[in-house]
Specification:
The protein is an alpha+beta fold. A hairpin with a 2-residue loop joins strand 1 and strand 2. The radius of gyration is 25 Å and the shape is elongated.
Length: 180
């Protein structure tokens, strides 16, 4: 006499386990959300202005022209994107370049020494302290100080505490949603 075993009451649990397993195999939704959130955090950090990681305070030049340091026309800030670049990796940054392909966001994040290359002088509009107007400055080289706003601590090679908390909360929420 053949033996038949019926499964009763486990179908729903088996289905839930399959959904959890599928969700863990496909992390695209949580990775895309984290990438988008970190990009927004970076943009928000630019809006927040000076922080304790900046080498110097607000830009005298930007303030004199009625702007906000790192904001100018907002092109750099608007160019920050976060995206999933592999099944288990995200990238957050900006493709915006200036000059000979310098990444504008990286210049401000890490600082840079800019040296006149194709001409004798670097020439740029600059507020004149002695006059209530603007003039042109000529320099052989300038140093752009670092003004980090990224949700990453480059010296420690880790997320800032705020970014780390955001990532953990996104992962926790994703896991909780899978387990419902």
């Amino acid at each position: 006499m053949p033996l038949a075993i019926e499964q009763r009451g486990f179908d729903e649990q088996g289905q839930r386990l399959r959904l959890i397993s599928d969700g863990l195999d496909n992390l695209d939704p949580v990775l895309n959300a984290i990438a988008s959130d970190l990009a927004q955090m970076w943009r928000d950090n630019i809006d927040a202005g000076p922080n304790d990681r900046w080498q110097v305070g607000p830009s005298y030049r930007a303030s004199a022209f009625g702007g906000i340091t790192l904001r100018d026309r907002g092109l750099m800030q608007a160019s920050i994107v976060g995206q999933q670049t592999s099944p288990s990796e995200i990238t957050v940054g900006s493709p915006l370049t200036v000059g000979d392909g310098w990444n504008l966001l990286a210049i401000h994040e890490f600082g840079a020494d800019v040296i006149a290359k194709n001409k004798d002088w670097l020439t740029f509009c600059y507020p004149l302290a002695s006059v209530a107007d603007f003039g042109w400055a000529r320099k052989k080289e300038i140093t752009i100080p670092s003004r980090p706003t990224a949700p990453f601590d480059w010296e420690r090679d880790e997320l800032t505490p705020e970014a780390d908390q955001l990532v953990h909360s996104r992962i926790d929420a994703y896991l909780a949603e899978l387990c419902q």
